[in-house]
C-alpha cells in the first residue's frame, strides 16, 4: 500500500526512510480510524482504496490540520469535517454487506 500511496502522490518509489515512516504512520492512523467507523472490525483488503485515498488527503493537509478553509490571493480551499465524509456511503454499504450493526453500541452481527 505504501508504494501505491507514493505513486498516487507522485513521490519517488525509492526508499526514503523519513518519508516512508511518515507515510506508514498516515496509512496506519487512517486504517485505525476506518476500523473505528466499522465498529471495531478490521478493514478488509477491498477497503484499501479508502485507506489510500484518505491518506492522500491527509498527506496533502500536512501543515493545515484543523483548518476549515484557506484563502490565498483569491484562491480558496475548503476542507470536509471528516476526511472520510466522501466515503460514508461506501462504508455503510460495506457494513450492510457484512451484516454489521453498531447502532446499539458495540458490534452486533445481524
How much helical structure, as a percent, in the residues?
40-55%
H/E element sequence: HHHEEHEE
C-alpha end-to-end distance: 32 Å
Order of strands, main sheet, comes to: 1-2
Low-confidence stretches: none
Broad shape: globular
Structure classification: mainly alpha
Mean pLDDT across all residues, rounded?
83
Number of strands: 4
Oligomer: single chain
CA-atom Rg in angstroms: 16 Å
The largest sheet is:
2 strands, antiparallel
Strand content: 5-15%
Number of helices: 4
What does this structure look like?
This protein has 110 residues and is mostly helical. It has 4 helices and 4 strands; from the N terminus they run αααββαββ. A two-stranded antiparallel sheet has the order 1-2. A two-stranded antiparallel sheet has the order 3-4. β1 and β2 (75-78) form a beta hairpin. The longest helix is centred in the N-terminal third of the chain and has 21 residues, at 17-37. The mean pLDDT is 83.
Amino acid at each position: 500500500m505504501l508504494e501505491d500511496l507514493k505513486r498516487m502522490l507522485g513521490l519517488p518509489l525509492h526508499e526514503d526512510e523519513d518519508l516512508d515512516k511518515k507515510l506508514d504512520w498516515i496509512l496506519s492512523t487512517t486504517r485505525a480510524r476506518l476500523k473505528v467507523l466499522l465498529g471495531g472490525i478490521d478493514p478488509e483488503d477491498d477497503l484499501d482504496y479508502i485507506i489510500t485515498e484518505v491518506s492522500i488527503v491527509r498527506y496533502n493537509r500536512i501543515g493545515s490540520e484543523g483548518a476549515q478553509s484557506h484563502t490565498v490571493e483569491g484562491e480558496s480551499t475548503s476542507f470536509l469535517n471528516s476526511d472520510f465524509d466522501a466515503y460514508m456511503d461506501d462504508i455503510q454499504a460495506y457494513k450492510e454487506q457484512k451484516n454489521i450493526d453498531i447502532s446499539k453500541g458495540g458490534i452486533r452481527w445481524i
